[in-house]
Prior knowledge:
Layout: E1 2-4, E2 10-18, E3 26-33, E4 38-48, E5 57-68, E6 73-78, E7 87-89, E8 92-97, E9 107-111
Amino acid sequence: MIIQIGSSPMTINTLGRFAAPGNTGTHLVKIVDATTATDLPGGSVSVSMAGAATGSFAYASLSTPVNLNPNATYYIVTQETADGNQWYEPTRHSKPIRLPPLRVLCILARMAT
């Protein structure tokens, strides 16, 4: 997922992953600077899908909130395992599919309130 930040900074305190049918694994979800292709310090979590209802998000809190810079672009990605949990292709949410490791998924970042 690509996030383009507007003219004001944004603070993220949790990251999440969308649950497809039968998801039970744990996934690394992280924020990557699109310009430098580097991981943001403190911008990763392990999200457990155990108990997540199909069609909902499972979330995990960052150890400390992460600030995203104004007018910057970021990727939110998740690490997947071959033959692991299914995921939804962003353009076709009606059919869960399997994927090779490390692909961009339907992920949601929650802003700090």
